[in-house]
Please model this.
Amino acid sequence: MHDAAVQIVYVTAANRDEALAIAKAVVGEHLAACANIVERVTSVYWWQGAVQEDSECVLILKTRRALVDDLSVRVKALHSYECPCVVALSIDGGSQEYLNWIVNETSQTT
Model:
């Protein structure tokens, strides 16, 4: 397996409940092998012409590159934000056993 076939998808969510609901859905549907939720981050960003500051949760999803588009669509469908942060980042290396596990878990059918 080539490492570039595995990606991290970074998502911010309004709160833990929303992040957990998204995580359970996409992992349950095998769109992601794993989800990590990081609570209580402070986000500062431009929105509607002004600098905003909010408390959010970060959701880190591990998936295959081939699933990023479907995963993004699913996250956006479950998300409360008008324009949610959903970005994919390539994994350049790491534990080959773990990377293989991600590929295997996201190759399952539901």
Remarks:
- The helical segments are 16-28, 68-78, 96-105.
- Strands lie at 6-13, 34-47, 50-64, 86-90.
- The first helix runs from residue 16 to 28.
